[in-house]
């Protein structure tokens, strides 16, 4: 554990992580559930630092079936997903609490939205700097280096930390 930065709190059988346990990853994501032979096995939940969670049945470290719930209570449904799509562009908080008055746009499900550092993008799990190509979480901790595909997707689809005027950029 000392080499991976993870922490294990639970039972052991023959020196292997097995039984009811809590496994804390270096990203502060926590697994609470059953382990077998050092792997997630049986009922278990991943709790993410963002407040979302993934409840699942695991078999030898792999998900058999699971359900993802966002921090605001919205549950992901792979078959009937109509959240913020062409069918219904409202955010979950708008669905639950109604639309804002005309002229007061809601830019994200979080209201008010996060302030994005200048020159960066909000890519959903953190801020992305296109110059360094690094994604850092919302607490400014390193998450990952973006590959070319992720870089292009972020530039094309994510909110920016600056405004643009046609023909002129206000970016620093």
Describe the structure.
The chain has 172 residues and is mostly beta strands. The strands form three sheets. It has a six-stranded antiparallel sheet, with no helix packed on it. A five-stranded antiparallel sheet has the order 10-9-8-7-11, with helices on one face. Strand 5 and strand 6 form a beta hairpin. It contains two helices and 13 strands, in the order ββββββαββββαβββ. The longest helix is centred in the last third of the chain and has 10 residues, at 148-157.
C-alpha-based Rg, rounded: 20 Å
CATH homologous group name of the domain at 7-69? Histone H3 K4-specific methyltransferase SET7/9 N-terminal domain
Determine the number of helices (DSSP H or I, runs of at least 4 residues). 2
The strand order across the widest sheet is 1-2-3-4-5-6
Question: Which residue ranges are poorly predicted, with pLDDT under 50 across at least 5 consecutive positions?
Answer: 166-170
CATH topology term of the domain at 7-69: Histone H3 K4-specific methyltransferase SET7/9 N-terminal domain
The arrangement of helices and strands along the chain is EEEEEEHEEEEHEEE
On the 0 to 100 scale, the average pLDDT is 83
The N- and C-terminal alpha carbons lie at a distance of 43 Å
Beta-strand percent range = 35-45%
């Amino acid at each position: 554990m000392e080499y991976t930065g993870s922490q294990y709190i639970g039972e052991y059988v023959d020196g292997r992580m097995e039984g009811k346990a809590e496994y804390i990853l270096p990203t502060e994501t926590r697994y609470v559930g059953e382990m077998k032979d050092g792997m997630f096995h049986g009922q278990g939940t991943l709790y993410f630092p963002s407040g979302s969670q993934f409840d699942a049945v695991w078999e030898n470290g792999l998900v058999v079936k699971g359900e993802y719930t966002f921090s605001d209570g919205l549950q992901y449904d792979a078959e009937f997903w109509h959240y913020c799509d062409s069918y219904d562009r409202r955010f979950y908080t708008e669905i639950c609490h109604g639309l804002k008055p005309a002229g007061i746009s809601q830019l994200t499900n979080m209201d008010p939205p996060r302030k994005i550092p200048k020159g960066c993008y909000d890519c959903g799990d953190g801020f992305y700097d296109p110059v360094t190509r690094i994604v850092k979480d919302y607490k400014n901790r390193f998450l990952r280096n973006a590959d070319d595909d992720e870089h292009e997707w972020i530039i094309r689809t994510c909110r920016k930390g600056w405004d643009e005027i046609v023909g002129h950029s206000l970016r620093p």
